[in-house]
TrEMBL record:
Keywords per UniProt: Dioxygenase, Lyase, Metal-binding, Oxidoreductase, Pyruvate
UniProt protein name: 3-dehydroshikimate dehydratase
SUPFAM superfamilies: Glyoxalase/Bleomycin resistance protein/Dihydroxybiphenyl dioxygenase (SSF54593), Xylose isomerase-like (SSF51658)
Species in which this protein is naturally found: Streptomyces iranensis
Pathway: Aromatic compound metabolism; 3,4-dihydroxybenzoate biosynthesis
Length: 603
């Protein structure tokens, strides 16, 4: 289906928006009148520019406060309309959005509304223009789609139809099934937006919190299915008002927007994208490593250096099934001036299919030979620029990235450094770009088929940490996506911390071992343990052990969670976790204590 977007969705000037919309791959645009009013470009120039960009102008909007007004106001409305029809002719736009009136002058009179809309449609038709009448959720007398449709039907003019807007319909809790009673050819336009579920004034909710389909809590795909059953064959068009998107990078928001429509079409059963290939585990985490701090920390954590790349300054460190790749060939020129997480290897049963899916959903594909290994690896860039490699480690049907590492002779000293009970990488926490948090959860859901969990806001001493986990159904791949909204300068790289969580089969033993070896662990204040005792009826022996070893504790409906953190090296720290009895979370309740301890150490 054709895909369109309202210019109001994006940041920037009209020219910047049109360029980004075309570059992302949209077919058309809705020109939001304010963008035109503020632009130095004449309507003719906008028409030519959109044509150059191979975009159609699908809608001009909004025209307000038309219907059911007293006679004296009607003349003024029609005069205003004629002026706008003239602008539309210069633009080459032939569909005008009229939203239901919010004016105190509007009368509660459907017959009058129909009569006046019919008159407007007649005037429009004389210019080759059609009118799409939309019910605003906060319209004065008309605020539901079925009411708007009744008026359109009553007006009965070929140049008058209705515009459906998923936000206005779903925000009011209107059942979308009734859409199927509208003939498809009378649905002149379809605007799509999602929103997080919030209890607030609907106008404020609409103006500030709309997001792209799949990023909020409304069933936009379900609504689309009803619309498509009517035979509607116009564009799918995004109309999103969002305070954060208005500040974000124009080009990447446009790509995020188009990705949401591609995923929505799939959810409504209208395309056959390659199916998601859900990753089955972490193959490795790759860290840009300068200096000796990370090798020292990995040694203290019980990792052994097991491989050296045959041609690059890259080392493989292993413990159990946890593999960490240290790359000292990445430096300031590649955006890694300090130790940082550069890439994640994801195990997938079909790396080429994973990459094909990612490409279809507009993920930036990386050159195959950037990989740590020389074995060709399919890779894409995640929204925070972390590189995601699709791997099939040591499987006979696929070249393994591990084949490019030469086994290290493990020194007797290293061999005596017994492993610390680490079994595998449990999760990886990535800091997202400030204005692209919603993009990230849609990316991981659509591209990798991971399931987004609830979005949390956690207290940081200098602001807030927004956090949302995504995971595979069996929990073998878990990512925590974070964005720190904190006072600038409140900790070096404070807003950019990343971490790798390693699972231990016996975290108490691991913690004792780390303490004996003097590993740099994050100190947890005594007050935390006093509160823990009050909140949970823990076995006194366990409580003493937690306090003694600086372990954090959490529980959910199924099980319990013990964890601890190392000090931060560059942007990265490690977490050791033990999930007991099927605990599913990430210890979010303890994040404020952890963040305070980290800020205290870095100040
Ligand atoms: Mg709308
Ligand atoms: Mg964690």
């Amino acid at each position: 289906m054709r895909k369109s977007i309202a210019t109001v969705c994006l940041s920037g000037t009209l020219e910047e928006k049109l360029t980004a919309i075309a570059a992302a791959g949209f077919d058309g645009v809705e020109i939001f009148e304010n963008d035109l009013l503020a632009s130095p470009l004449s309507p003719e120039r906008v028409r030519d520019r959109t044509a150059e960009l191979d975009l159609t102008i699908d809608l001009f909007q909004p025209f307000r406060d038309v219907e059911a007004v007293p006679e004296d106001l009607l003349a003024r409305t029609l005069r205003r309309a004629e002026k706008k029809f003239a602008v539309m002719e210069r633009l080459g736009a032939d569909l005008m959005l009229v939203c239901s009136s919010v004016s105190p002058a509007a009368l509660d009179d459907d017959a009058l509304a129909a009569e006046q809309l019919r008159l407007l449609a007649e005037r429009a038709a004389a210019h080759g223009i059609r009118i799409a009448y939309e019910a605003l959720a906060w319209g004065r007398h008309v605020n539901t789609y079925d009411h708007a449709w009744r008026i359109v039907r009553q007006a009965d003019h070929p140049a008058l139809g209705t515009c459906l807007d998923s936000f206005h319909i779903l925000s009011r809790g209107s059942g979308p099934k009734g859409i199927e009673e509208i003939p498809g050819e009378k649905i002149f336009f379809l605007q799509l937006a999602d929103a997080p579920l919030m209890a607030m004034d609907v106008l404020q909710w609409s103006r500030h919190y709309r997001c792209f389909p799949g990023q909020g809590g409304l069933d936009v795909a379900g609504l689309l299915e009803h619309v498509l059953r009517t035979g509607y064959d116009g564009p799918l068009s995004l109309e999103v008002f969002n305070d954060v998107f208005r500040q974000g990078d124009t080009a990447r928001t446009a790509v995020d927007a188009l990705r949401s429509l591609i995923a929505l079409e799939e959810a409504a059963g209208r395309t056959d994208l390659p199916a998601p290939v859900v990753p089955t585990g972490f193959a490795f985490a790759e860290l840009a490593s300068t200096g000796l701090e990370l090798p020292a920390l990995l040694t203290e954590l019980g990792f052994a250096r097991t491989g050296r790349h045959h041609s690059k300054p890259v080392e493989l460190w292993e413990q159990g099934d946890a593999r960490i790749v240290l790359n000292s060939g990445l430096d300031a020129t590649t955006g890694h001036p300090e130790p940082a997480l550069a890439a994640i290897g994801l195990e997938t049963p079909d790396p080429a299919a994973s990459a094909g899916r990612a490409r279809a959903l507009l993920a930036p594909v990386l050159p195959r030979h950037r990989a740590v290994a020389d074995a060709p690896l399919d890779a894409v860039a995640a929204p925070d620029s972390t590189e995601l490699f699709f791997c099939r480690t040591e499987h006979p049907d696929h070249p393994s990235w591990t084949g490019d590492f030469r086994a290290c002779v493990i020194s007797p000293r290293a061999a005596s450094a017994a492993p610390a009970g680490i079994t595998h990488i449990d999760h990886v926490a990535l800091t997202q770009p400030r204005y692209h948090f919603d993009e990230a959860s849609l990316f991981y859901r659509a591209v990798l088929g991971l399931r987004p969990h609830e979005s949390l806001e956690l207290a940081d001493p200098y602001g807030l940490l927004r956090s949302r986990a995504v995971s595979g159904a069996d929990g073998s791949v878990r990512l925590a996506l974070n964005v720190a909204q904190i006072r600038p300068g409140s900790g070096p790289s404070g807003s950019l911390w990343q971490h790798i969580a390693l699972h231990s089969r016996d975290i108490v033993a691991t913690a004792r071992r780390l303490r004996e070896r003097g590993a740099p662990l994050l100190p947890i204040p005594d007050n935390y343990y006093d509160d823990l005792e009050a909140r949970h009826e823990l076995d006194p022996g366990l409580h003493r052990t937690l306090r003694e070893l600086g372990l954090l504790y959490d529980q959910d409906d199924s099980g319990t969670f013990l964890h601890l953190y190392t000090a931060t090296v560059g942007r990265v720290f490690f977490e050791i976790v033990q999930r007991i009895d099927g605990y599913q979370g990430y210890g979010a309740a303890n994040a404020p204590v952890r963040l305070a301890a980290q800020h205290a150490r870095t100040r």
